[in-house]
Amino acid sequence: MTNRPKFLWVSASPSLKYFHRPLLANLSNSIAVEVWEYCQTLDEASSIDRAVELLQTHLSGSIDPVHLIGHGIGGTIALIYARRYPRQVASLTLLSVAVRPGLNWHSYYYDRLWSLSDRREQILQSIASDLFPANCDRYINDLVDRIERDLVESPSSHSLFRSSILPAGGVEMPLLICSSQDDPVISAPAAYGWTNYLKPIDKIWHLSTGGHFFHYVRAELVSCHIQRFWQELEPDIAFHQRLKVELN
Fold first, then answer.
1. Strand order in the sheet with 7-11
2. What global pTM score does this model have?
3. Around Cβ 140, how many Cβ atoms within 10 Å?
4. What is the pLDDT of residues 55-80, one digit of tens each?
5. Collapsed DSSP state (helix, strand, coil) of residue 186
6. Which of 163, 55, 23 is nearest to 101 (CA)?
7. Is there a contact between 47 and 77 (Cβ–Cβ < 8 Å)?
8. Taking the CB of residue 57, how many other CB atoms lie within 10 A of it?
9. By C-alpha distance, which of 133, 76, 129 is closest to 101?
10. Are 222 and 214 in contact (CB under 8 A)?
């Protein structure tokens, strides 16, 4: 048995992890947060199940249940893991994860690819503008490169031939849902649909602006909401940084 940190960020998008760093840095100022990363190779089939199995291998020796947190596809992996191994998970925090998991920026891309006559390069540029509106003009080439690599590096239930959306539903452990109301990928119904599955202890919080990567744009505010959620569940754990941002 191992004594791992109780808080674990699940990452499955190597090319996009840059946009998680401000939030992770802010959380790490208060509490130890471990990062678990999955990156599939070109020789592997795109399988979320494989990522879940490897996460279970990583956590199987843990003494205590962990608080899982993830954004997008990483959040989907954390959600599926929490449903399969509920005793291993103390709580689940999901950022930009729809009530029907698998509805993500990959499905957004393939919907555009199927419905538009534009070239692939044009669609990627358009999606980069949608996902990163504040950064796109200056860094368009880098952003397009990042999301194009993410289509290859991240496990996905979508491809050019089919798109699979997982069933809606909740989890046994305490759940925090965070999203942005102007997210072009996760529409309001896809985000608010979580209310049908929440338990009394669960929480849902929608930021008015910030887009799909709202935790990059408003890292400190998002960090405060997550810490408040964790503190209510773990009152005996000392968080080293006071919550200075007014929560709204």
1. 33-37, 7-11, 66-71, 89-95, 175-180, 203-207
2. 0.88
3. 15
4. 999 998 888 899 999 999 999 999 99
5. coil
6. 163
7. no
8. 9
9. 76
10. yes
